[in-house]
Amino acid sequence: MLQTGRVWRGASVSAGGQAGLPSGFAALDEQLPGGGWPAGALTEILPAHEGIGELRLLGPALARLSAQGRTLAWIAPPYLPYAPALAAAGIALPRIVIVRTTHARDALWAAEQALRSNACGAVLCWLERPRYPDLRRLQVAAEGGDAAGFVFRKPVAVNESSPAPLRLSLATDAGGLAVHILKRRGGPLTRPVLIPALAAPFSSPYTQQHAQQRAQQQTRHALDRLSPAAAAARTVRLAHA
Amino acid sequence: MTVAAATAIAPRLRVKPRDAAGETEALLTLAAWCGQFTPNVALEFPDTVLLEVSASLTLFKGLEPVLHALRSGFKDMHYSAQIACAPTPLAASWLARVGAAHAVDQGISLESVLAGLPVALVDAHTQTHTQTQGDWLDAFEKMGISTIGALLAQPRAELTQRFGHALCERLDQALGRIADPRIWVVPPEQFAANLELPAEVSQAEALLFAARRLLLQLGGFLQARCCGVQRFSLRLAHRERTTEIQIGLVTPSRDAEHFTLLLRERLGATALPEPVRSMRLEAADIQPLPGGSQPLFAGFGTGTGGEKGDWQRLVERLRARLGGEQVGGLALAPEHRPERASLSVNSVSSGAGLGAKQLALRFGDRPLWLLPEPRPLPELGAAPQHEGPLALIAGPERIESGWWDEGGVKRDYFVARTQALSYVWIYRERQPAGRWYLHGLFA
After folding, report:
1. Which residues of A touch B424 (CB under 8 A)?
2. Which of A111, A143, B47, B98 is the most buried (most CB within 10 A)?
3. Does residue A14 sit within a domain?
4. Nearest residue on chain B to A208, alpha-carbon basis
């Protein structure tokens, strides 16, 4: 039973059960049971606030799933998923199914259907204040297949009990994104996992160049405010027409 | 027996006028449904369907599976049927009419089986012999002949002299001595089936129970023609009005169970204004669908890590309940204006992407979340504010486009960092009093 992952020792990270989906970040994979995102189970992600990097955290795993031809279901996303950014992250756009719902129970129903149908590789859902029985249903639906379910919740839910076998809370740190593992199949982790690669969302060479120039400029401005050279060396403008 | 006499015997009897047209339509629909077992289906009005199954026995691995499928199919469609088999169509029709559930094998003599049947069967309507000789039965009674066996025992010459060639022809056809060619039914090009409900129904589950019969008929019809449908519509007739429920599929299918699931979701989401009296199922868009590539089960695997489901079936199911516009996919558009570069497409396609690599390299970073409408930001000392002062990190990236239609934009885009160390995508309009707007979040 240790091997199948139904029982795990409290002191070590469980290595049994289904192999996890590699997250693309080695520091995180070391701390996750199964070496990655759990397939056939629910993972709760509680970002400290929206836009902290929760989607970029999943980016490599989603890109790998879509490359394998698995469908990715997005249930009730709070904003519009932006196609150019997703394409730049390597996620194949034809594999994405977006479900917009008006009621919370419709979102829950859609998530359960997506998990139970075993037709998706990953199901991402944003639920409004889900209760324990609702999450339990999603967990049971996920266990019937090998889809990775991700539920995004508000940070106030940190202290609520939840049936999800993996719970992460995300916060920003000076050196990158700090992932606190609140619950996992294995021993507890007191230190957060720091992922420097998610510090800033710059992957395009243009943005990186701009950021560097701006940073340099600001230090230069502080030193010589009225120098004409500084005024001439303004930001390089990238013109689109 | 008159109606008055019948009502006197059974006071709670409900009397309805006979709907000959409805019976004919039902018989034709059933004949089309039976086409999934054999292409040779003939009719004997008003109530007999003949299937010539000798060529299909290898596919179905014997007679018993065919009979079993017929019985369960009729039961699901709520028709009560008497099924009998014989080497000749006339003998099979007589056996079924009597209610003898015989399956006559080659070894047993047909004569001995037919011998016990009442002689009135010989006089019944058939496709080829449409005239009943009313005086035959009287003559048989006077001659003391009550079974077919007794009739067969009579000498042929005398029978021909007394009753004409027709009687002997019929007996010979029943025994297989001469041929009995039948006209095979050709299934119609489109499917349409009616169902009158015995009482007014207003509950979705009861409607589904009734509609299931029609869906099974549709499934059998499609199976017989080796086709599938991508769209079908169910018309519910109320007292004065009609409600139409249209169900669309991502790929053509002929799976009646899947249709039932989709209809259940749609009926659950539809509010009916009045109780329903009758329903009509129509499917006009029939497309050829070869059998081999269809999954056997509609993909709702319950095993651990079991069968891979069909994402198309999932999308159909979600659309049936939530509405077609709520479920869609994403596509790239070759547009500089950010709000138009990401398209929400209704058809979740499996086609190739649109040169994503080229687009990604040419521009700056794009946020993963885009706000549906750019949100104006308050300014404090010429610096935009969003949960505190924003620090501009990268930019400006000028986008000027769309001067050819009303959506012209002239914006300078920046990547900014909030107090909480998360990144947002903001822009300032290139106008004299340009305001700052929040357009996206880098998640």
Report:
1. 51
2. A111
3. no
4. B394
Q: Note whether B328 contacts A: Cβ–Cβ < 8 A.
A: yes
Residues, chain A: 241
Rg from Cα positions in chain A:
21
Q: How close A68 gets to chain B, by Cα (Å)?
A: 13
Is B180 part of a structural domain of the chain?
A: no
Q: Are A214 and A235 in contact (CB under 8 A)?
A: yes
- Structure-token match 């029939």, residue found: B286
Q: Choose among A56, A210, A214: nearest Cβ to B443.
A: A56
Give chain B's domain count: 3
User: Do the domain assignments include residue A13?
Assistant: no
Task: Check A80 against B371: CB less than 8 A apart.
Answer: yes
- The verdict on ipTM greater than 0.90 is no
Query: Domain span at residue B269?
Result: 191-291+310-320
Answer yes or no: is pLDDT of A236 > 50: no
Among B81, B113, B83, CA closest to B96: B83
**Same domain, yes or no, for A110 and A71?**
yes
Comparing A60-64, B217-221, B338-342, which segment has the lowest mean pLDDT? B338-342
**Are both A183 and A219 inside the same structural domain?**
no
Residues of the domain holding A210: 202-241
Q: Are B355 and A92 in contact (CB under 8 A)?
A: no
Q: Taking 90 as the threshold, does the pLDDT of residue A125 lie above it?
A: yes
Would B85 be classed as within a structural domain? yes
Phi and psi torsions of A230, nearest 5°: -65, -40
- Residue at A33 is within a domain: yes
Indicate the pLDDT class of residue A10, thresholds 50, 70 and 90: low
CB-based contact, A98 to chain B, within 8 Å: yes
Chain A nearest CA to B408, separation (Å): 11
- Following CA atoms B202, B204, B209, B213 in sequence, which dihedral angle do they give, to the nearest 10 degrees? 90
Tell me how close the Cα of A186 comes to any Cα of chain B, in angstroms: 22
- Tell whether A164 is covered by a domain: yes
